[in-house]
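Risk register update: the risk of archive-format incompatibility is retired. Evidence:
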Amino acid sequence: MVTTLSAQLAGFMAEPHGYAPELAEELVAAYRPRLTAITPDRLEVPRLDVESVGRALLGVHALTQAPPLLALYKGAAAQGEFQLDNLDHLKALALILLHAYRQADAAGAFTSGAKLSAALDKESAEVESRLQKVCEHFFGDDPELGPVLRRLSAGTGYLDRAYDLLGYADIYQARHDVVSKDPIHYRATDLADARRLASQILAVLGAALSPRAREAYDLLQRAWTLAKPLYVEVRELGLRFLRYDPQREARFPSRPELHHRRPSRRTSTALPAGSFLGDTAPGRAPRRRERPSGLVVPRQAQGSSSMSEGTRGFTS
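Archived output:
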């Protein structure tokens, strides 16, 4: 069956579930216990295009409902490799994610008139500048990191700066053996300082949120914290089932640069093939600064966290 799956899916037209506020509200109520059970230290900051990702998740769910593919998921569940209900959980969380984003947007969670102190403004700008120079020196033409650096190139706004600091810090952590060789701009303390300063910036901006905006954005973080590892699990099985399908990466898009995509309500909701969050060609051409997905309620900014924690809440 696996060897012929590509041919069996050739004529299948996935029809993603549409977003409806009333249904989303019901799902929020149903999932409230799971969402509120997430401890603050596990919350993920959704630094991505929430609208596009939510719709992409719904598209993936629709694909998993193709009879030949669904049969394989059921087989994996029978073998104890997968919790079949997680397919429905993925759809539900995608709808909650879209709903939470729209509520947060309506509540003004993505705009802030907060100002940084002069000291925080100065130090964070200096650290970002050094990180950018080191990363672009080594990875400007890198096929994987080049597109990331293009998105992280200097922009405007404190929120942009906070997310840029976190993005550069992730690169520093992943490629420390390379960046540490820079004799001019590299500083051993910049990785920790970048995350500390980003956390401080986000705390200042988050503190300016109204109670309604804070509540809506908290829901957004919780929905994303559960949805992200769930998608990874569904995708890993899907890629295994479709290992002979040349379109498998397009059917189950990857998650490159998960932490660095910035959202924009004006961007297309369609995603390029092979990229879960979308991607752009490497290079140093100026980019349009996309609208960040929101502020983080004050907490310690961190790098990538475990991808298995959220999924555990859905297995029995």
